[in-house]
Amino acid sequence: MSATCKVTIDGHTIEVPAGTLLTDAARAADVHVPIFCSHQKLPPLGACRICVVEVGLPRRGPDGKPALDSAGTPVVTWMPKPQTACTTYVADGMQVRTTSPEAVTARKGVMEFLLVNHPLDCPVCDEGGECQLQDLAFAFGADFSRMDEAKRTFVSEDLGPVVKKEANRCIVCMRCVRYCDEIMGDDALTAHQRGVRTEISSFDRQPLDCEQCGNCIEVCPVGALTALPYRFKARPWDLRQHITVCPYCANGCSVRLGVRGMEILRARGTEHRGVNQEYLCVRGRFGYEFVNDAERLSSPLVRSGGSLTPTGFDAAVDFAAARLREVAAAHGPGAVAFLGGEKLNLEEAYLYQKLARAVLGTNHVDARTRFTARLPGEAVLRATGGGRPLLSLEDLGHAEEVLVLGDDLQGESPFAQAVLVRGQHQAGLHLTIAHPRRVKLARPKFRGEWLAYRPGSEAALLNGLVRAALERGTPDGLPSDVAAGLPALRQAVAEWTPARTEQATGVPARAIEAAAARLAQARRRAILFGRAFTEHPAAADLLRGIESLGWASGALSAARSEVMYIGPQHDSQGALDMGLVPDLLPGYVPVGDAAGRKPFEQQWAATLPAEPGLSAPEILRAAAEGRIRALWIVGDEWLRSAPDRALAEQALAACDLVVVSELFLTETARRAHVVFPVCSFAEKEGVVVNCERRLQRAARAIAPKRGTRPDWEVFQAVARALGVRWSFRTAEDVFREIARLVPGYRGRSWATLVPLGPQWALEAPAAATLGAAREGAPPAGEGLWLLSGGTLFLQGSLSHRGRLLPKLAKAARARLHPAEARRLGVAEGDAVELAGPAGTLRLPAALDVEVPEGSVFVPYAHAEVELNRLGAPAGAGLKVVVRPARVAERVGA
Amino acid sequence: MLKEMGQGLGVTLQNLFRKPFTVLYPDEKLQMLPRFRGLHILTRHEDGLERCVGCELCAVACPADAIFVAAAENDPQGPRSHGERYAERYEINMLRCIFCGMCEEACPEDAIYLEKNYELSDYQRDAFIYTKDELLVPSEKAGYLPQR
């Protein structure tokens, strides 16, 4: 059988790969075949029958060759009845008719059946104007119905705060049920009853208990499922649609914002576009509310006489510049530090560090404000293959074995989770989830392996995995430096036998060996890690461990990398690439490398400091101790994100100048001397880099709110006030400079970054640093291990501003294993007090079997959870004493 | 030349004694033809509820982009219209309107009609944006639909 088939559709002959569905072949031939139940991400079902076409195959003679008629053309045997194109695979020589009288009559009949029970409420229905049933009824349907009987009716209901169900409109295509099941992995929807009485609802007919992603609404071809937040807000023709990049996680999903006037009314995915195509998570779909918020800052604020007073932009710029100059003159450039920037666009991140390095002459720049320990800027790059071509999110779905290290993807990277669920469901992907807690992907229904290591034993787990992987032999395709380093690595991890690893981590030896074997044997694999490891106090060691595991298992090779870093913010990768770290210039050029520094010095016309600067946790300490006198904090609620709250408060009080660029008057901004109001993601354009290192240009959807500017304009204005001549007119100008100067970005063109840019790679990958991960020092504090992680519904202070997301997230709970709670004498809902080395936190408790004994889980994304009040983690992490709040009161009294 | 002058003045004299075409507006008003299109009305059902459900088909049909509709959800206790949706705001910019009647044609609910009122003048431009209060017929005219 040949790999491709020739198909003739309505007279157009095309060649498509064997195994293509007729609907896809028709799309390739530019023939319109209507569909309802068929969906690009779901296997064929054939539920709605609207795609019926006439199909014929060449008749074969006794010799197996196509029979010819007297004119010499092949004889076609037409199938006796029309076939559904969405379930029919192409065959060589297939003939298809979509417009023949038989096909047209059949389609008209199907349409009449679909409309038998469909109400005529298009004027009221929110889908009206973008409804596939409306369009196809208009195109193919009759203009009257022969249906005399009463239509079947259901009661409409709200399935939770997101989904409105109007079952009367449902055509039972099952897209929502299948999407929820196969891609979200939630199984929240089902079909009740049979035949004409079929009704889609939750299993128990209660509000949906799911990720509330709203993808069921998106895939519904009719108005049976509509979005409550968008209910009756507008018609599709009212909206200007702008495709931009979601600001909520490192996946970089394309989101289509619908704007009416100056207000964003909804966000949707776009079929066939972006890394995510149609998918959006709940944050992406409903998290835009903060852009419309009335509390947004609209004027720069300058502290005068103890309070922040609104002032003009130029005055604020002059004030900031003058004070920066004073501090730098009095205490040297090393007294100025720049924090934050993971939420900046690439161009802005570039200018931010340029302002620090070229204008003020300091290397105290760090975007990674949550980090608890100094981590070399190159550590993440090395762990992900040193800049070698990286696997994409699409490749991730086709991997055979995926190891997720320490991250709860549901909160940190919902789209990657959906990719994995779909891969598991449809392509036989196997999951190995290393996480102390039983996170969603570790649940039995995804049939993966759960490596439930004890908190604090991350290093032991990595060493054990490295050893077990090396036991399987040396992987192919290693670069020479790695191949040379392998014997030493083998020796370094020799003591980490599976038995010892089991002893140290609590993960069965068999599971470790099996996981390493699967990883080493898979033809395509992936290792994912994120902030759980990078924000760990022993991050430098853990990242070396991940890198070693990558090389030992074959996930890293000379040609490519299958290790992906999922950063905490949507442009974390871009901030790293642009040198928002104390020891690297843009493009991973070490600041101490004189030859590498030269092009930057020439372009920037400045002498750059060669000493690496202080990292974020060091800046925190230095500022609290008065060694750093001026701080600039960009897009970061530092009082919440700094690892130690008390130190951060001291630091803000001690500094002579604190400049904050923000959308809102956050707690941090309240303590600043100058606050610049800046644009939200929807109001500016620029490039963002997602976790697959893909450059994507985010478009401007609405005009900046009055009084706000993009961050880069603020940086440029301050730089000019400090006496340098920057003359960028647009973000594109800045990008041109990046494309001239920065390794990995050289030669990139702004025009090619829409809709999907390329994934960047370094021509000369960084050298590997193999080694065993050292076990962490003892943790800070005592009591139960404090586990924390992301929440699906919230991410960052901006998500607290809307109404829907905080409502969905509910109040934060301290989650305890029931056995642990019994020991502590805590019942569901009781207030408990968490006491760390530096402070306490009071929360209601929740019992959760998914949290391991000996630990307490508190999500960090909620507004009311300020974990940094407990004290900074150290060594292997942080432990807290948990006790019922009444006892705590008694002790306190 | 005198002959031509006489002819011209003859025409003038003829018209002097003819019944005038003009009417003494505003004391006298013309009877409008049945299909004349003037200011819009928004009609009501017999039970007094608004016919308009805020579907915005009038707005999208309008070639002059003169209509703005913002819909909202009915309070089930005190609905404004039949169905779940009603027009919270309904505005027509009469300076833009070209009185083509496409809105009337597009309306699936018989909610909008162009009536005979042509007396549309004011001192302020803003006053030409007719709001829902001005367009909706009073509740005494519930059930009224113009003949077409």
Q: What gyration radius of chain A follows from the Cα positions, in whole Å?
A: 29 Å
Across the major sheet of chain A, the strand order is 16-15-28-27-26-17-18
Counted up, domains of chain B total: 1
What's the shape of chain A?
A: globular
Average residue pLDDT of chain B: 93
| Main sheet record of chain A | 7 strands, mixed
Distance between the termini of chain B: 56 Å
Count of extended strands of chain B: 5
Spans where pLDDT lies below 50 across 5 or more residues of chain A: none
Average pLDDT level of chain A: 93
Share of residues in helices of chain A = 25-40%
- Based on the structure, what is the oligomeric state of the protein chains? heterodimer
Number of domains of chain A: 5
Output the CATH class name of the largest domain in chain A.
Alpha Beta
CATH architecture grouping of chain B: 2-Layer Sandwich
Describe the protein's architecture and organization.
The complex is a heterodimer of chains A (893) and B (148). Chain A has 893 residues and is of the alpha/beta class. Chain A folds into 5 domains: 4-114, Ubiquitin-like (UB roll), CATH 3.10.20.740; 126-131 and 147-238, Alpha-Beta Plaits (2-Layer Sandwich); 334-370 and 572-753, Rossmann fold (3-Layer(aba) Sandwich); 380-565, Dimethylsulfoxide Reductase, domain 2 (3-Layer(aba) Sandwich), CATH 3.40.228; 784-884, Barwin-like endoglucanases. Helices cover 30% and strands 18% of the residues of chain A. In chain A, the strands form 9 sheets. A 7-stranded mixed β-sheet of chain A has the order 16-15-28-27-26-17-18, with helices on both faces. In chain A, strands 1, 2, 3, 4, 5 and 6 form a 6-stranded mixed β-sheet that branches. A 6-stranded mixed barrel of chain A has the order 31-35-32-34-33-36. In chain A, α8 (346-360) crosses α26. The longest helix of chain A is centred in the middle third of the chain and has 19 residues, at 313-331. Chain A starts with a strand and ends with a helix. The model of chain A has no long low-confidence stretch (mean pLDDT 93). Chain B contains 4 helices and 5 strands, in the order αβαββαββα. Chain B is of the alpha+beta class and 148 residues long. In chain B, the strands form 2 sheets. A 3-stranded antiparallel β-sheet of chain B has the order 2-3-5. Chain B has a single domain (31-141), classed as Alpha-Beta Plaits (2-Layer Sandwich). Classes of the chains: A alpha/beta (893), B alpha+beta (148). The A-B interface holds A 121-124, 128-129, 231-235, 237-238 and B 53-57, 59-60, 70-73, 83-85, 108-109.
